Amino acid sequence: FSTSARQVRGPDGERLGAVLAYQEITDLIRAIEVKDEFVASVSHELRTPLTSVLGHLELLCESDDLPAEAAAQLRVVQRNALRLQALLADLLLIGQVADGTLELHMGPADAAAIAREAVEFARVSAQRAGISLTADLPERLPLRADAQRLRQVVDNLVSNAIKYSRSGDAATVTARQEGDRVVIEVADTGIGIAAEELDHVFGRFFRGGEAIQRQITGTGLGLSIVGSIVAAHDGTVTVESEQGRGTTFRATLPARL
Ligand code: ADP
């Protein structure tokens, strides 16, 4: 059942009573489950043929006797097949979150090293976009976490900071210890997020108006994945933003040392 309640007031604002509404939403929940199952099984089924496509592409790309133009086209095909693979991985992860089967491989990790690697990984794309990417990180920042998933969190935040910034803008990754917590911040001086969209950015498939208008490519899955991974670590992630001036995402995770 879904419930909602509302006060009823008269013309002078006096309280007349209240309306309490109960709605039976079994069918709606079942429909959402069916949709989640469908997305999960389609993503799963697409993975095997795509792995085969990528394997053959890799062999072809390594061949020395391809004409230059064919080799260049094959690389485009390979790049797009890799994008498809990343998208499928995101959809599978979203499916695992939805049906509660997301498994974390917790172990000793270093948030500073993870953030440093993410910054190095994004260095070239930041340079290409004309964005200065800097990191302000301590030598080490130990915590217990699923290092691979945490890297995914920082990768998503950093790639967004670059995607939603303009040439000449800056993006900064910082991390620090606060008591028994580790805080990772990704800030940019980019296009920002409209105030009325702030509550929705962590939703599945949500894309901002500016993102669509500026034709910035995306699926609306990145932040939903960030939110789910951080929540699975018993952490929180928040966003502050001013349209036209920039955005800061802050993930706070228990160090659990
Ligand atoms: P995608 O980037 O694929 O659209 P995300 O889930 O990563 O999906 O982000 C959802 C939306 O949040 C984006 O479409 C964009 O509107 C907004 N957003 C995310 N990160 C930023 C950022 N650093 N600056 C401005 N807007 C952002």
TrEMBL record:
What Enzyme Commission number does this protein have?
Answer: 2.7.13.3
Q: Where is the Histidine kinase domain?
A: 41-257
Q: Keyword set for this entry?
A: Kinase, Phosphoprotein, Transferase, Two-component regulatory system
Reaction(s) the record says it catalyses? ATP + protein L-histidine = ADP + protein N-phospho-L-histidine
Whole-protein coverage range: 227 to 483 of 483
Q: Indicate where this protein is primarily found.
A: membrane
Instruction: Give the originating organism.
Output: Nocardioides aquiterrae
Q: Where in the cell is it found?
A: Cell membrane
List the protein's name.
histidine kinase
Q: What class of enzyme is it?
A: transferase
The answer to whether UniProt assigns keyword Phosphoprotein to this entry is: yes
